[in-house]
Amino acid sequence: MTTLALFLMPALAWSAPFERAPDGYTLVAEDDCGDPDAMPHVVRGKAYVFSRETVTAPLQDRDIVFDNEFCLLRYEKL
User: Fold this and answer.
1) Among 76, 28, 68, 20, which Cα is nearest to 48's?
2) Is the distance from CB of 33 to CB of 55 less than 8 angstroms?
3) Whole-angstrom Cα distance, residue 56 to residue 72?
4) pLDDT in tens for each of the 78 residues of the chain?
5) Backbone phi, then psi, for 3, in 5-degree steps?
6) Three-class SS of residue 36?
């Protein structure tokens, strides 16, 4: 039963906030997917915001890009 509970925990609980690219990597593009003014590389998908009751976090951690079939982001000249 404990193992099952771990699978049901939100991924947000397991992940640390992004602060910088890992050693050996360089950040070449960044989007705030979910904020319509800050996601220039989103080709398909629409902004969605989880309610505060569903995800207890600041707005920047509750907004995402969502589509029932798939999301597509395009980065050129990386």
Assistant:
1) 68
2) no
3) 27
4) 444 444 444 554 555 667 888 899 988 777 778 888 888 889 999 989 999 999 998 888 888 998 999 999 898 877
5) -60, -45
6) helix
